[in-house]
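User: Hey, my collaborator sent me this sequence without any context and asked if I could get a structure. I don't really work with proteins. Can you help?
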Amino acid sequence: MARTITTSSARSLPWLQNPLQAHKEWRATLTWSHAGDENTRDALYTDHSNKLYQSFWGKFCRWLAAKSLKLDQVKQAHIEDFLGSLRGRKNAPASVRTMRTYLAEINRVFTHLEASGILRANPAAVVLEGKRKKAESRIETDPPLPPGPTFLAAYEKMAARMFAEERAQLRQGWTPARNLALRLLVAESGLKLSEVCKLIPRNISFLDGGTVVIRSPGHRQVAARTLVGKRQLANALARWIEMRSELRIVRSRRAIAEGARTSNRLFLGQVDIAPAADLVAGGLGAARSPIAPDLAERVVTSCVKRTLEALGHQAAFHGPQFVRNAYAARLIHRGMNDADVSDQLGMKTTFTARAIREKLQAG
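Assistant: No problem. I've predicted the 3D structure and written it out in structure-token form, which is a compact way to encode the shape of the chain:
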């Protein structure tokens, strides 16, 4: 769902003269909300989400201040330089996804300032359009070569084997059941990593024939859609959901004090090491171990990569996206056309499907 931004005031001078000072003075007036239609009142994001979006804009303002740039002096090149300055782990360049996230929020604020008459033009719009075009040629049209048609069967067999091993090591633990459901879901649904993390229990329905329906809510570049999984996935999800009902989610006192909403994610993660006094139990059933309200993407990635490593693949370079491409390749092997493959993947274009088909034909 799209986000809009509003301010409680429209003074232009602080914005134009000193971006950093303006951010400090005005950050409480920046409010992000879901974009509604003319008959629907915009729904505000939580305080936590607003602070996150404000932090993206704030980092950009600090960068401008260091360059002695005013907002009405910002050009396309400046925004490109800022994105290039972002760093990831071990001081490596930030990921494409991180840069897209920053750019999206910068564009949202500039769009608002332009609409409010504070600025004459939005310099981020040109950058965003350029990135979108680049993304199609750099990411969507150049996926890694998918493995052969027998790969997913081997992957699912390995997932079952790893479940047996993990359960033998953690007989009273809940993570083996979660890991199996995660591994199979990625292989049998073709969901993106972000979609897996966004699922809630209500997105899962079991059919009388032993299959399972997954209603993905979509996420950013992928459309919402309904997928059907076979019995093996249905059993794994049913086992996990039953075990999940016996767990208790814990939240930090700080999160509660800040009014952060309680998560209802389908998949849960373990709480990172923290003082016990800072954690407050609540939510589901009797706790077996501390359960976090959300599942970090790194947990899903690590879970899938361990399976790939066991199959002899270079997991350092291949993760959930590799399995997603294998899922698309299986659909192509079964005779599905590019448009239908793209619908299954939730893609708005056929770039990925066409590129995978070309790689399969070239291989």
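In plain terms: Strands lie at 3-6, 31-34, 204-206, 212-216, 225-229, 249-252, 269-270, 279-282, 291-292. You can pass these tokens on to your collaborator as they are.
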